[in-house]
Every structure is written in C-alpha cells, then in structure tokens.
Design brief:
Layout (H helix, E strand, L loop, with lengths): L1 H20 L5 E2 L2 E2 H8 L7 E13 L5 E8 L3 E6 L2 E18 L5 E17 L6 E11 L10 E15 L2 E16 L7 E11 L4 E7 L1 E4 L4 E16 L2 E14 L7 E12 L2
Antiparallel strand pairs: 1-2, 3-4, 3-16, 4-6, 5-6, 6-7, 7-8, 8-9, 9-10, 10-11, 11-12, 11-13, 12-14, 13-14, 14-15, 15-16
Length: about 280
C-alpha cells in the first residue's frame, strides 16, 4: 500500500515537473490549451471529456484505522439541442478498495468492488451571458454491492449547477437532491442533499488551480461528509489529443460515522475528445 502511494505521488510529481519545464505556449498544433483548460473547469461545457479520478482517504471504520481508495470513471457527454442549448449527461461509476475497515460488530474487512453507478444530467440553455446554469434528473444505483462500499438503496432526484466564467476565473455551485426509491437502509440511505461550491483559476500556460468543497448531508443520520480539496492541474496536447493531469491534498472538515476523516489525496487524468 505505502509503495503504491509513493509510486503514484512520484509519478504525478514528475509529470507536473516536466510540464513546468515544457514550452508554455497557449496553443499546440492549432489546439488552444487555455480554452480547453477553462472548459474543463466548467462541468456543463459543450465538450466531450473522459475524467478518471483516484482518491485516497484515511480514518475509515469504527476505530478510524482503515483506509479507502476510490476510482471514479465519469465521462461527460454533451448533446447539442440547437440554438446554443445543450443537454449534458454524466454517468459516474465508482470503484472502491477498502483496507482494515472495522465494522460496528468489531469485524475487520478488506476488499474491493463497485460502490455505485450514478447518472447526472443537465439541460443548459444558451444564456448569452458569462453566467450559465443547468438542471436535470439525477439517479443512483447500488449496483448490487454487499453494503461494504456504501448504501444499498436506489436514489432519484434532481441535480443543478450555476456558474460564472469571468476571464481566467470559473466559479459556481453544483448540487443535487436525492430521495430514497427503495432498498436496504442498513448501510445508509439515499436521502441526501449535496452541494459543491468551486472556484478555478486558469493561467496563460494552461495551469488550473482549483478549490472545492463537497458537502453531502444525510437527512436520516443528520450528519455531513465534507471534504475540502485544493489542487493544481496542467493541460497538455499529445499528437493533437488534449490530456489534463492534476493532483492535490484533501481534508475532511466533517464526516459521517465510519466514513473517511482527516487528510487524504486526489489525482486526476482527463482525456478530451475534440469534435
């Protein structure tokens, strides 16, 4: 485990270091890297992207002695509705590995599996403004997991986002409201309210500095899981294909019983598919 984390940190650090020394032009082979980096900071941009997000968290379980690794696969697929209006679909598949996580009965668990499959969608009308917004249906399925990796309930609701693009800045709020649609509540429920305020600054060298907070409140436990993340990413172009790499620390300001706590880390790799 420690060796794996060291290799990951060294790899990401080396990649970002090489990017700093690389030529910092705003375009590469006709590709505007800064414009693409700004669009990646916008969750409802009219651009196909395929992000992979790795997250390492500690303090998991009854005694807070376990750890958790999460890999999110979350492609963004926009559909042009004409007149500048867009419909964005974002499916999210979460794979989880847990190590030495102690349950309420005192038994320790280590293993991996699929935590959930989520579908977020946004209808984003053309606002002819720097301010844009989107709203649409939300759904989450437990994917038949055993309860070791989260709720076994199905949830449905509504998701929305509002943001402003002002020069190098992108800032706004993304959120959803989910209600339980059935399933076993023993491992948590889907009666959740989620809010993610975010702010990003993109430089002329296609670096993006990001800060966000992902607060999820559960109506049944009356508790909030609230990780704060701050990171830096850089967009590169390889043979005409844009790729953004990023990493940064995170800290759980508050957590649900048995959930991650304290410090963690996140790394991302996002492939952009140009039309």
């Amino acid at each position: 485990m420690k060796l794996f984390k060291r290799i990951l940190v060294i790899s990401v650090t080396a990649a970002l270091s090489s990017l700093v020394s690389a030529q910092g032009s705003a375009s590469d082979g006709g590709t505007d890297k800064v414009d693409i980096a700004k669009k990646l900071a916008n969750p409802i941009a009219d651009m196909i992207s395929v992000p992979l997000q790795y997250e390492f968290s500690r303090g998991v379980g009854k005694t807070q002695g376990g750890s958790q690794q999460t890999l999110l696969f979350q492609p963004v697929m926009p559909f042009n509705l004409g007149g500048g209006d867009t419909f964005i679909v974002r499916p999210i598949v979460a794979g989880v590995r847990e190590v030495s996580v102690q349950a309420a009965n005192g038994q320790s668990f280590s293993g991996y599996g699929i935590a959930s499959v989520t579908i977020e969608s946004f209808y984003a009308p053309n606002t002819n403004s720097s301010w844009i917004w989107g709203i649409g249906p939300y759904a989450v399925s437990p994917s038949g997991n055993s309860g070791k990796f989260g709720s076994q309930q199905t949830g449905a609701g509504v998701t929305g986002v509002v943001l402003n693009r002002q020069g190098p800045w992108t800032y706004g709020l993304l959120g959803y409201q989910s209600w339980n649609m059935g399933g076993n509540p023993a491992f948590g429920t889907q009666n959740n309210l989620y809010g993610q305020p975010f702010i990003a600054f993109t430089t002329k060298n296609a670096f993006t500095y990001t800060v966000n907070m992902e607060a999820q409140y559960n109506y049944d436990t009356h508790r909030t899981s609230n990780p704060l993340y701050a990171g830096v990413s850089r967009l590169m172009v390889f043979d005409g294909v844009p790729l953004q790499l990023g990493a940064g620390p995170m800290y759980y300001v508050s957590n649900t019983p048995g959930g991650p706590s304290g410090w963690g880390a996140r790394a991302t790799a996002t492939l952009v598919i140009l039309k």
